[in-house]
Amino acid sequence: MPPKTIKPAQHLKPSGQMEEEGKVLASKKLAEPQSEDNAATNDDILRAVQSLREDCSKQFTDTMDAINGIKSDLLSQAQRMGAAEERISQAEEDVIALQHKVNKLEETTEFLRNKVQDLEDRGRRSNLRLLGLPEKMEGSNMCAFIENFLPTILRDEFGSPPVTERAHRVGQVNPNRPSTPRAIVIKFLNYQDREKALRAARKMKELRYEGQRISLFPDLSAETRQRQRQFDGVKAQLRGMGIRYGMLYPAHLIVTHAGQQHVFKTVAEADDFVRSVRTTA
């Protein structure tokens, strides 16, 4: 086998020399004229940069226009909000003024309602209501019947027969309760006759005519009667306890207990009194 040929060893250049040679080669390359491909590439880059600048400029302009539009809208909204706040403030002031007027009108309305109710009740002061008299018992002349009827049931309380200005039944016959007679309103010519009849009825406590139980009451307005009916529950309890009571105009409950009189203007006060009496009993 022939012996291998040994290559002669290569001599390595120093690092400083290699750097100098690299710089020389680079300078030579820069000194060489650029090719047409490199020039075309630079033009493309310039055009792309120019196009990018134009796009950016356009987008910036569009953005500024949008911002200016938003600013304009915000300014318009701020103006409208200011105007709306002024109108709301004015409306609140108007509402307060109107509320004061409404309160004043409500007070005036309540005063006038009470005044009308009082006038209506005063117009009925000479009237009495007769309950329980069967239908058609009065015949064809109601006034003549009443003038003979009252002295009979009140046992000659009147020195002379009372004079009635008019008398008539109220409302229509209830088809669901045909046996229930309608009330009779009696208007006396003399107020004193009305008072005599009412005092005699209260003194006798129970009135009967031909086996029928009848009652005499003051003739009051519907509003006053409604206010007095609120005490019906309390009056029922007082009757059960054997305590005397009565009604004062317009709607006050008067109770006589243990030799003392108590006047109650509200149902709550009367209920408290009944509870206290039951507790101490």
From TrEMBL:
<feature type="coiled-coil region">
    <location>
        <begin position="74"/>
        <end position="122"/>
    </location>
</feature>
<dbReference type="InterPro" id="IPR043636">
    <property type="entry name" value="L1_RRM_dom"/>
</dbReference>
<feature type="region of interest" description="Disordered">
    <location>
        <begin position="1"/>
        <end position="42"/>
    </location>
</feature>
<keyword id="KW-0175">Coiled coil</keyword>
<dbReference type="Pfam" id="PF02994">
    <property type="entry name" value="Transposase_22"/>
</dbReference>
<feature type="domain" description="L1 transposable element RRM">
    <location>
        <begin position="125"/>
        <end position="216"/>
    </location>
</feature>
<dbReference type="InterPro" id="IPR004244">
    <property type="entry name" value="Transposase_22"/>
</dbReference>
<dbReference type="InterPro" id="IPR042566">
    <property type="entry name" value="L1_C"/>
</dbReference>
<protein>
    <submittedName>
        <fullName>LINE-1 type transposase domain-containing 1</fullName>
    </submittedName>
</protein>
